[in-house]
Amino acid sequence: MDKCVVRQAIKEAGSQNVIGYEILFQASSDDLYSKTEYSSADTIINFMMQNSSKIFSELPTFLTFTPALLFRNLPKIFEKDKLVIQIEDNLIVHPLALPMIKKYKGEGYRLAINDFQFSPKYLDMLEYADFIRISVNGRQQKEKASLDNVVKMAQAFGKKCIATGVNSKEEFQLAADLKVEYMEGNYIAETLVTKANKVEYLQGTFFQLVIAISKDEPEIDELEDIISRDAGLTYALLKLVNSAYFALRKRTASVRQAIITMGIGRLKEWVYMLSLDEENATGGSEEVLKMSFLRAKFAQDLTGLINRRDFPINKAEAYMMGMFSGLEYMVDATLEELLEEIPIKDEVKKALTSHEGEAGKLMLLILAYEKADWKESKKLAGELGIASNTLAQIYMDCIQDVNTIWEALTTDFRRKDDGATGRE
Predict the structure, then answer these.
(1) Of the candidates 57, 27, 330, 21, which has an alpha carbon nearest to the alpha carbon of residue 182?
(2) I want to staple 376 with a disulfide (CB 3.0 to 4.6 A). Which of 20, 70, 368, 383 is the partner?
(3) Whole-model pTM?
(4) CB–CB of 87/113 below 8 Å?
């Protein structure tokens, strides 16, 4: 049985602050949760035990538990403040549901109820819930009244409401009208970011760095000159190179030495991360950067599994494809306009703008997996010659890579008695 798992951000309504992530397991006609109860529990427990350090970040993780998973005390392998136990119908109707919920609540765990309904069993659970999750996916404005009743009732009892399945502008507007506290969905992940002006972006130091490093044979002198002109880029580069990730024996304050230490390949991969302005970046733009970086790592690793000489892009080009896929959410211009300024292969441009060709098929696979469309993911993986049962583990490994690098970038590299950074 294939394992499929993806992580989706939950954001504060009306702001760009991410308050947690939901981990979604396979959800289709081949649903893990619809399998034999103990069979699915074994599959999920084994996967979670192997990947718990990759799944959990500094923010709370929302995870749906079946009765078997709760009976086996799976939540207890995780820190209480890092986990929100989600419960749904298959647990609500269980005869031992209430005692189990009381037990975990009494031990300090937070709980969320999926797709709340006005029925005695759901109402009995309301006292113990911290969050009420309401799906707006596919709902119309005419259904607003019934959804509004659920939200108002939940908030009257002091519960926070999360609108899920916010995958379009219309669903976002419906969720906003309901005045929920939080939202989750593809539309939320990709929008609500303050975009940079196109002209300023194209003239900026970072874009010059993108152009320079995208050349077939980047020149270290040019890269050093561009980075050294920008205090933010210089600081971020030196902070990364002097972090524990590289474990240098002797710390460096030289931009040139930092570039040589990283290598052109790694600098090319992380150039977006180096552009992060920590003083001015919003929660939304930071999340889009993380999304782009995760897509890049996922594309790179999947390309390594495509055993075909005729595949049009290599791993480095696949990485850049994933990274550039989030550019239009950051800059006030179309992706077509932005890509005209960058010297990348036509196959990558077509893959990003129209999803054409084999590279486009890889991009579609990444987007389908990101949206938890397991059926389409398996279909596209098969067409590319990638074993679908490898997707979940590769994805979780990529999350760990992103978390590790992000931590290195956001941890001050200065130590006691360090001198000022600068160009030598």
Answers:
(1) 21
(2) 368
(3) 0.70
(4) yes
